[in-house]
Amino acid sequence: MVNPFRVPVPLFVAALLAAAPVPAHEKKAEVTIARANCARLVAHIPAADVAYRPGVDAYGRAVAPADLSGGTQIPVPETLHIPIEIDLLDRFGIPAHPDLYQADIPLGEVVYRNGRLSFNGQPLQDEAAAELAKRCQNIMAGTPE
Fold first, then answer.
1. 3-state DSSP call for residue 25?
2. Contact, 112 vs 134, CB < 8 A?
3. pLDDT per residue over 80-139, tens digit each?
4. What is the Cβ-side half-sphere exposure of residue 11, based on CA atoms within 13 angstroms?
5. Which pLDDT score, from 0 to 100, does residue 82 have?
6. What is the three-state SS of 67-107?
7. How far apart are CA 84 and CA 104, in angstroms?
8. What is the pTM of this model?
9. What single-letter DSSP state applies at residue 108?
């Protein structure tokens, strides 16, 4: 009787070599993504003809500025820190006691820096997704990588 599980040695060795993992330095991952899907990942950058221009209406005609006194320019910081807290008075009706405790319990902090968000130092987007979004933005803008 012939053993159905018997495999010739050369065939077995060839199968093992084919199934062997490829070293990391030889692996090349290539991802193909449709332009429509790429557009979903990139930050919206309005075209120059639709961006806000002070003193000009939608048709390019001169208009009086909205702030007639000249206004105050507020510098936007490079990094934004947003504390996340629970207010015990609002949430549970527990008032603060000045000698014992505050009614706000800090949970953490969201930080926005260089177009990326983190919560308590942990990125809210993984590195692979950030790299893909960056490459998509270059593709959509027509600039080389």
1. helix
2. no
3. 999 999 888 888 888 877 788 777 888 899 998 877 889 999 988 777 777 787 788 777
4. 4
5. 92
6. CCCCCCCCCCCCEEEEEEEEEHHHHHCCCCECCCECCEEEE
7. 10
8. 0.44
9. E
Give the H or E element holding residue 30. Answer: none
Average pLDDT over residues 7-33: 56
Per-residue tokens: 29 = 């991952």
Average pLDDT of the residues in 10-19: 47
- Classify each residue of 4-37 as buried b or exposed e, where b means 16 or more C-beta atoms within 10 Å of its C-beta: eeeeeeeeeeeeeeeeeeeeeeeeeeeeeeeeee
pLDDT tens-place string over residues 36-58: 777 777 766 677 667 777 888 88
Collapsed DSSP state (helix, strand, coil) of residue 116: strand
Which letter does DSSP use for residue 24 in this model? G
Reduced to 3 states (helix: H, G, I; strand: E, B; else coil), residue 56 is: strand
Which structure tokens are listed for 52? 């806000």
Which string of DSSP letters, residue by residue, matches 118-138? EETTEESS-HHHHHHHHHHHH
As given in the structure block, the two tokens for residue 8 are 């010739």
